[in-house]
Fold this protein.
Amino acid sequence: MKALIIGATGATGKDLLNILLQDPHYKEVAIFVRRSTGLVHPKLTEILTDFDQLDTVEAYIKGEVLFSCLGTTLKAAGSKAWQRHIDYEIPLKFAELAKRSGVSTIILLSAYGASATSRVFYSRIKGQLEDAIDTLAFNKCVIFRPGLLLREDSDRLGERISAGVLKLLNGLGLFKKFRPLPTALLAGKIAKASLTLGDGKHVLELDNIFDF
């Protein structure tokens, strides 16, 4: 099986890439990145990509499964317009090209609360992306909607504080549905999804991800 990844340099994407390179079910892994990661592996192909000119790499978008893990924060993006471009426009365009080239499965990393009608901007664009990809009618579409992610050595103060508070509350038996999810654990579930779930649409949220 050949896997394609966008978002391979993000926290979850990095963990996913490492897992796929070690998994014998995946014979080839192609990642689409702005700059070289410097990684060398016999299964790995790295395609340097201008994500504003995706048509130029369409010939390389060939495989069995697309893992879509691309995303950013409003702070990193600098504006809502640019965050929408990264979190909605680029993944959708890539998915369209993948579908056109015969990719049959898409595994989409979304977010808890994703809904096209949400009043929360981030949740709304994630929901809009889910709906748009659904119209592409992949044979298999798996959507992950995790809550707070635990990134190894995270430098996000708010994230560390939130994780600490949730861990404390979880220890008291509260809000266990919202317990933080390590990116390595999430990546393992994402890799597993393309191998174990049947055709059709599947949505995994919060505690369903832990149990999957």
Notes: The chain has one domain: 2-151+182-205.
